[in-house]
Design goal:
It is a single chain. This protein has one domain (5-157, 199-287): Rossmann fold (3-Layer(aba) Sandwich), CATH 3.40.50.1820. The protein is globular, with a radius of gyration of 18 Å. Strands 1-2-4-3-5-6-7-8 form an eight-stranded mixed sheet, sandwiched between helices. The chain has helices at 5-10, 66-69, 96-109, 123-133, 170-178, 190-198, 201-217, 220-227, 268-271, 273-287, and strands at 25-31, 34-41, 48-52, 74-78, 115-120, 138-144, 231-236, 257-261. Mean pLDDT is 90; it is low at 1-16. With 292 residues, the protein is α/β, with parallel strands linked by helices. α2 links the parallel β3 (48-52) and β4.
């Protein structure tokens, strides 16, 4: 079912949350579990790209990439439940299949029949879950700095956020954010730190636990191998959260493309958007569906 203009207006798609001068549409889409914040950019009849953010982040993490992708794609971003401007209920499931189900419902409401699902960090696990839940909807997957399994995680006690002390202090947030990039001089945008502060203790711990649980059940290459979907893996080679050498584990997926980006860390979409966009655009040129 496609969301009508009245639906979008009722959800806050007019006025400040409507189309801006660049053609972006930002609105709240009501689902049974709670309102989901959605951003759309680019031509409506172009191939659809669904961009999924990582844990303790939001759709704003993709902002630097959107101008590079939207001229040739219908770029759709969501704030997963518990994140960004979406609802943060304490009585709903944050398990990855449920997060994926909501993302699929958003695409259904927007009339999207086929999309390339792109996930950054734990957003890649949601993209994988979406392909498992809705193989009819996902034509291909691109994972950006998504660890293949928990064995690839690089723990950092000094940068960890203690959920028992919520909201986190600025010093904690900066230490946590520092592991998301490779360059000591790079400053994570303040609005992304605000996204962490805007979470509740429950949504922060529940979403982190959900990702761990999903990876404990089965590693991503094992899940992706049986799906038979085209796969692109992009990894900043200097990632300080996931071992970049683990990207080679995805080569177990037939036909998988693995691209390492030297000099970039866990968030290449922030550190160097053009270098991150280049392999993604080449990949979608082959696997995106026109007018989806």
């Amino acid at each position: 079912m496609t969301a009508s203009d009245d639906d979008l207006k009722a959800s806050g798609a007019d006025g400040a949350d409507g189309a801006d001068a660049t053609g972006q549409h930002s609105f709240l889409l009501p689902l049974d579990d709670g309102d989901i914040h959605v951003c759309e950019d680019g031509p409506r009849d172009a191939p659809a790209l669904l961009l999924i953010h990582g844990s303790a982040s939001s759709s704003r993490s993709w902002n630097p990439m959107v101008p590079l992708l939207s001229p040739s794609h219908r770029v759709i971003r969501v704030d997963l439940l518990g994140h960004g401007r979406s609802a943060k209920p304490a009585d709903r499931s944050y398990a990855l299949p449920d997060q994926a189900r909501r993302a699929g419902l958003v695409l259904d409401r927007l009339g999207v029949e086929h999309a390339v699902a792109v996930g950054h960090s734990s957003g890649g696990t949601v993209a994988t879950a979406l392909a498992e839940e809705r193989p009819d909807l996902v034509t291909a997957l691109a994972l950006v700095n998504t660890g293949p399994g928990l064995d690839a995680f690089v723990p950092s006690e000094t940068a960890a956020i203690d959920p028992s002390r919520w909201p986190p202090a600025d010093e904690q947030l900066r230490a946590f954010a520092s592991t998301g990039v490779s360059r000591a001089g790079y400053r994570i945008p303040d609005e992304l730190l605000d996204d962490v502060r805007a979470m509740t203790r429950h949504t922060f711990t529940a979403t982190m636990t959900a990702t761990r649980s999903y990876l404990e059940q089965r590693r991503l290459p094992d899940r992706l191998e049986v799906l038979g979907k085209p796969l692109l893996v992009v990894f900043g080679q200097d990632d300080r959260r996931w071992r970049s050498s683990s990207a080679s584990d995805y080569r177990a997926v037939p036909g998988a493309q693995v691209v390492l980006l030297p000099g970039l860390g866990h968030s290449p979409l922030l550190e160097d958007p053009p270098r991150t966009a280049a392999p993604l655009l080449a990949f979608t040129a082959l696997h995106a569906v026109q007018g989806a």
